[in-house]
Amino acid sequence: MKYLVLLCDGMADTPSEYLNGHTPMELADKPNMDSLARAAEVGLCKTVAKGLKPGSDVANLSVMGYDPTVSYTGRSPLEAASIGIDLKDTDVTLRCNIVTLSDEENYEDKTMVDYCAGDISTAEAEEIIKTVQEKLGNDIYSFYSGVSYRHCLVVDGGTTDLGNMTPPHDISGRVVGEYLSTSENAAPLIALMKKSYEFLKDNPVNKKRIAEGKNPANSIWLWGEGTKPVVANFKEKNGVSGCVISAVDLLKGIGICAGMDTPEVEGATGYIDTNFEGKADAAINAFKSGTELVYIHVEAPDECGHRCEPENKVKSIGLIDKLILAPVKSALDEMGEDYRILICPDHPTPLLTKTHSSDPVPFMIYDSRKAMSGVETFNEKTALATGLYIEHGPSIMDRLLEK
Question: Of all residues in the chain, what percent carry a pLDDT higher than 70?
Fold first, then answer.
C-alpha cells in the first residue's frame, strides 16, 4: 500500500469581495481533485487545537499525526533542524525573517511594508545574513541563513519567555510599534532588530535591489521562539516509511526530526513560481524507490493569501492539481499497487485577513480500492455539507493509514 499526502498550505479561505463572494477553492480549475472527491471520503478537520496559534508548524504536525501539545516546542527549532544546526538543550532558537520596513526615524513608527522583502532570493539573503552575523553575532547570538526570507537565530542559554513576538506576516501594512514585545526578556532581541535596520538600509544588496525597483531587506524580525524539538520517529510510530517534499525549512525540519527523507527539489521556492513538476518527480521517485508514504507540501496558496493575491491563489491551486496531483496519481496507477490519497490544507489563509485562521479545513481521503459517496466538487462548502468532522487533528493520519 502506498500513501500520498498532498498538503496545500493555506488553500482554504472564506468567501470574499475579491472573488465575487467565492473562495479560491470554488473557482480553481482542479479537475483531478474534483474527480477524486466524487469517490472519496470528504469532510472537515480541526488541525489547530484550541489554545494554539494557527501556524503551519502546529497544523502540519497535526496532519502528520503528531499531537502539538506534546511534540511542539516552537517553530524555529524545526527550521533549525533543516538548516543543519545541532542544538544544545540550553539553546533557544527564533525565526529570523528579513523584512522591508518603511523609513520613519523611530523604529516603532515604521510600517511592515513587506514580510518577505520582495520574495528575496536565497543568494541575496545569504549576503544579508552574513552581514547580520558579522555585526550582531557573538558568543550568545548566532545567525544562520535559510531559504529566501526565512532564517534562524540561536541564543545560547536563552529563554522562551519573551511575551508576544508577533509573526511579521500577521501585521502587513501596519505600524510595528504596538506589535513589539514589551517583555523585559525580549528587550535585547528587539534591540537587535533595531540595530539591524541601521546597517542594513545601506547594505550593497539593498542598494542594488532599490535601484532595480525591488523591496530592500532592511531589517531582521525575530519571532517563533522554541527549544530543541521532541518528535517521534515516523516509521516507528506508524509502521510505514515516509518522505517529506517541501521548499521550506519548517517542513523539511519536521521531516528530519521524524526520521523521514527530505529530498531537495531544485527550483522549489515556496511561492507560485516554484518547481511544481520537480516536486511531482521527487514524489514519484520516492514511491518507486520503496517509500510508502510521501508528504508533498506546497506553500504557494499560503503565500498568495498572505499577499492578498486572489488570482494567484486561484491559479496556484490549479497548478497543484495539474502539475503535481495528475502526474503522481498517474504514476501510482501505473505501479499497480493499492494506494490512498489525503488532500487538505494545513490551515486557512483568508485573503480578507492575509493571515492564518484556526478554522477547520476541508479534507478528502481517496482509496484506489473502493469508491465512497463523495461530493461533486472539493471546497469548503461541500466539505461542510457532508457533516463529517474530525475534532482531533492528529487522528487524520491514523484515518489515512486505517489504524
Answer: 100
